Amino acid sequence: MEIVGSGFVAGALRTIAPRHPGVVALAAGVSRIRPEYAHQDLAREAALVTEQARRCASRGATLLYFSTASAALYGTPGCSGTEECRHAARTPYGRHKLAMERLVKRSGCRWLILRLAHLVGPGQRPHQLVPALVAQALGGRVRVLRPASRDLLDVADFVTMTDLLLGAGVEGETVNVASGRSTEVDAIVDHVAALTGTDPVRHYVEESSRHTVSIERLRCLSSRPWTFGEDYYQGVLDRSVGDLLRVRAAR
Hints:
The protein starts with a strand and ends with a helix. The radius of gyration is 18 Å and the shape is globular. By secondary structure, it is of the alpha/beta class. It has one domain (2-250): Rossmann fold. It is built from nine helices and eleven strands.
């Protein structure tokens, strides 16, 4: 596997790269829209997707594109959380990711699109969900979206899921890669506060982005009966927050 990018997802994929020759993993896309740089960020990703799709088409390689299964795509009221949901894309970021998916599908290359939940693990950037919550908790004030919910997925499980899909030769599919468990942000903050030994002031922001991601297609295509318990998110946070605190202590 050729990995384009050097961030969190790219680093996680390196362990399985030797097993998947002929795959180009595009792990250098936009992970958020910065209002002041929105046009540049989106144009940069569109150019990158176009370039890599052309390369894959000329070489007969498969382009592995990472989209989103977050509330940005599935948070619209009435959305089923399935890959065919017609109510998807409630935000500019969600609409951008759908546009990139269409670009990949129309490019003429072989492709596999994975819509990712909130991946959690070592090496995340400060603006991502768990590092941001830990920093806020330690700072004494946390911004909590309510009644929003998030699907947290351990990055190790993401790697296993990706490995199985590629190993099974899956292509020409759009697949949700998630736990299928939706946890309220308030509960996530509760656990982060307990792990950091803090009692931060909570600033509540009303946001109707509660959503659930369907992983039925993932189960079928990966031939694995993925099942995650209600407390799965707690184990994910235990590992991630512990790692973040150790890194902070070592500075």
